[in-house]
Amino acid sequence: MHLLLVEDNEDHILISMEAFGNGKIANNISVVSHGKEAMDFLTRFGKYPLAQLPDLLLTDVTLPKKNGHEVLMFCKPDTALKHIPVILCTTSSSDQHILKLYRNCAKFYITQPVEVNNFLKVAATIKNCWISVVKITAQINLHD
User: Fold this and answer.
1) What are the backbone dihedrals phi and psi of residue 87, each rounded to the nearest 5 degrees, phi first?
2) What is the model's pTM?
3) Which of 134, 9, 14 is nearest to 83 (CA)?
4) Please, are residues 72 and 88 in contact by the beta-carbon 8 Å criterion?
5) Helix, strand or coil for residue 84?
6) Which CATH number describes the domain made up of 2-140?
7) Could you list the pLDDT tens digit for every one of the 144 residues in the chain?
């Protein structure tokens, strides 16, 4: 499975790479640091002409250049991208914030944990939900 991680915090990137790598959630993890870069990656624009579409997109909501909401809204109307499940992470637990994400077709919302052990638990939850239970593109070969 190919995971695209959109995260601007270096510590969160390192924790994510360890959590998803150790949990054997993804065998290919691509990392971009802001929303505009994610959009370029997804459309194979600029420095990403050979980018492989991810099977799962995990993005922070609060990003520079384009935020997680904008990345989500960019993907959903695009026929080449709308099948990719988008999981959004943020430190906010506001009901209004969460409702906005789901109304915009987020598949999963995670309150981003600060502690490493809690982040490992979140990674395990993602694995259990999106890898073990839900069939996603890597398992049904939509890209071919």
Assistant:
1) -110, 125
2) 0.78
3) 134
4) yes
5) coil
6) 3.40.50.2300
7) 788 999 888 887 887 777 776 555 556 889 999 999 999 999 999 999 999 999 889 888 888 899 888 898 898 888 888 888 888 877 666 677 677 766 666 666 666 666 667 777 777 776 666 655 455 544 444 444
